[in-house]
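Continued from yesterday's entry.
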Amino acid sequence: MTTPSLTSEYATLDALETRIRTHRLYSETDDDVNASVAAALRLTGSEQLIDIGCGTSEFLALLAERGHTGRLCGLDTSQSAAAAAARLPGVAGIRAAAERIPARAGAWDFLTARHMLYHLDDPLRALREFRRVVRSGGTVCVVVNHARACARTRDLVTAVAARYGFREPPGMLNRDVDSDTGPAMMRDVFGNAEVRAFDNALVIPEPEPAIRFAESLFAFCGVAPGATGYSEVRADVEAELRRWFAANPGRRWRDPKGYTVITAIRT
């Protein structure tokens, strides 16, 4: 049986883009995590900023669209993600690990790490590396999810996947990293932390987007694309979601979620 990994999950950005699109279209309270991070940083536009775990590079694109003139860089272990950053005018894309950033000490004014610390076995090691590459007086901003964010959908996928022998693969999610633990980790490394929590929920009104979102979580439940049993898991997940909507006319699939933006000054 093929076992998913972070490498395989982010070899393309398709599943990530599905998750981002779902959150953008179906959040109960209108919210934009990229705008929340930008607001927390209070950027003037001239700072040198590196985004760790840049993914689709939506955050860097936002800064570029706002006319940011300082040096911008996206770093990710995924070649697809690094390439997405490099395609943005005036933005560098680097393929590297968060624990080994190819930069001299104090090279950056600002560092952002959105929704990526929970992919690391040793998040404190990465935070210490963040501290190394940010100048004295510079800012590090991380975003972590609430514990069990979107657990309703994930629990459904997990239960269906288990029928076919699939289990959560090791090394993809570090459940010790969330909104409850993140602030203490930042204080341990930086000695300070400013915390802003954002509570929300997905509210999906019809089966098709709920099915697409559920499928975008398959790898985190052990179901790799092309694996024997993939189509059966998808068919069962689809059937269960369609059955729920049919049994609950007029109701929306509600799945609580949230995240926390944590900023720290490098003293």
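--- second protein ---
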Amino acid sequence: MSVTTFAPETEARLALARQVADAVLFEGYVLYPYRASAAKNRLRWQFGVLVPPAWGADCEEYDFQHTECLMEPKADASLAVELRFLRARRRTVQQARPDGGFDTVPELRLGDRTLVPWDEGTEERVEAVVPVGELLGDGVRVPFDRPAGEDTEPVLDETGRVVGRMVRRYEETSGVLRLSASELDGPYRVLRLTTIVENTSTWTPPDGTAADRDAALPRSLVAAHLLMGLSAGSFLSMTDPPEWAKRAVASCRNLHTWPVLAGEPGRGDVVLSSPIILEDHPAIAPESPGALYDATEIDEILALRTAALTDEEKREARGTDDRAAAVIDLADTMPPEVLERLHGAVRSLREVTGAGEKTAAASAPAADGFPDEFGVRRPDTPWWDPASDAGFDPARDRIDVDGRSLGAGSRVLLRPGLRRADAQDLFLAGRTAKVEAVLHDVDGGVHLAVTVEDDPGADIRREQGRFLYFQPDEVEPLEDEA
């Protein structure tokens, strides 16, 4: 691991952002039920995997990340950069023989765990501090290399006797971090910062064989992401830039990663460029009891389901990975008051008056409290009760968008905004849709319920009241309906 000494104030700011970066680093590291034998744990690591170039050419994964963002550095400012990634460490399990040798086995049973083969992930960092002036022109190139290696760890039983060992093997991993900047025309001193992370491994699949993903992973940069901090100055938000910078932000190219402001809210001197879509100043929920690593579950449900695993399942989970063992112990020892805190949280309250109060009943998204696209209503439950508020009728209400009147039956082009959209919304950008209803929420906001054209399940979704929702500034009116 390379070492660069950051200034104390820079280190403090990066440390705060690193809390979220740790979640990115281990997102989906091991999935419930935390056993290596579970089907969904056999395909490891889905986010930010930069594979060797020779293998990436034949697959849908990439050997690089490209980040561009805008910054306003002050005179003599420096840029601190921290590339973080996981390095796959392949573990095999061996059982001791009476003659002192060892045999590789599919599992090794101990008192409280069953050890099995597994790919562990070890954190790696590449750090650099560069004066902003040196980024102009050709910029700076920071190569890095991690050599191959092997280590062993004895496995002892309850009496302290050696009953086996774990053998961990590293493959050589190499890459390069490229940093450059260019000054933009305009009344303000704004620089476009470009950072590129590349896997430069020279490994190629053996001749005559088609190597699979498992062979490429030990030579990959897993969950790769960047933390960047300015010693003086600030970055511009890529999702909510000032009006004068919107065109420059739109021209930035971000491939396989996305930069957001990070660290202390209200400041703009730290950026996290992540392979996972985040909003500005992401934060760990204060109710979270600890890292659960699973990318697909809600903490409360996950903690309850983990505690309900059988003793045999917990044995294998503890033997799968130290982090999985910690999750099992966390679920088994979580006090009731900690679990209770996971059951919903109110982040903020604001006064709702006037029309907002009037629209409360009409804005309820679904009987189960989740947005319609995530929940199926009972067929005998109407998706909207006209008697709940006689002043609003989603099927007849209309709104003006770009000088055009929109209501049920109108056709629109979907233009989801980056600030509010999630990944599913972005997949629908440019698709045409039909407005099914105009809804008002408790804060006075307006939402359009739509179904996507050419969706074979549109009739079923319409019957069940399962729609997609967009705000008026996220759609473009098409020709009027008949």
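DSSP finds eleven helices and 22 strands in the chain. Residues 8-25 form the longest helix (18 residues). Will compare against the first tomorrow.
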